[in-house]
Write a structure and sequence with these properties.
- It is a single chain.
- The protein is extended.
- Helices cover 0% and strands 38% of the residues.
- The protein is mainly beta.
Length: 93
């Protein structure tokens, strides 16, 4: 879940900011397809010794297909190089 996503409703009733991974009918193929998440918000749980800009507990944005999934105790973990992180959100001291 992205803790920074703001869901708003316009005066006319349109919901803005909602992410969806539901199925949709493709105009190109006519088939039902899944709306896959491309950019994901993730929490750093550990960093390697050569990591220079991140610390555990920080939030980052990554391109999901670049990250390598690691199945561990039925949880959704990923490994990604520091260079492939789109942006990170530093905590204020």
């Amino acid at each position: 879940q992205n803790p920074y996503r703001a869901i708003e409703k316009t005066k006319s009733g349109i919901v803005v900011g909602m992410e969806s991974t539901k199925m949709f009918k493709s105009n190109e193929t006519g088939e039902m397809e899944r709306n896959d998440e491309v950019v994901a918000c993730a929490k750093v749980i550990a960093v390697g010794p050569k990591c220079q800009n991140l610390e555990g507990g920080e939030d980052v944005y990554v391109i999901k297909h670049i990250a390598t999934p690691i199945p561990y105790r039925k949880m959704q973990y990923y490994v990604i190089n520091e260079q492939n992180i789109i942006c990170y959100l530093k905590k204020k001291n």
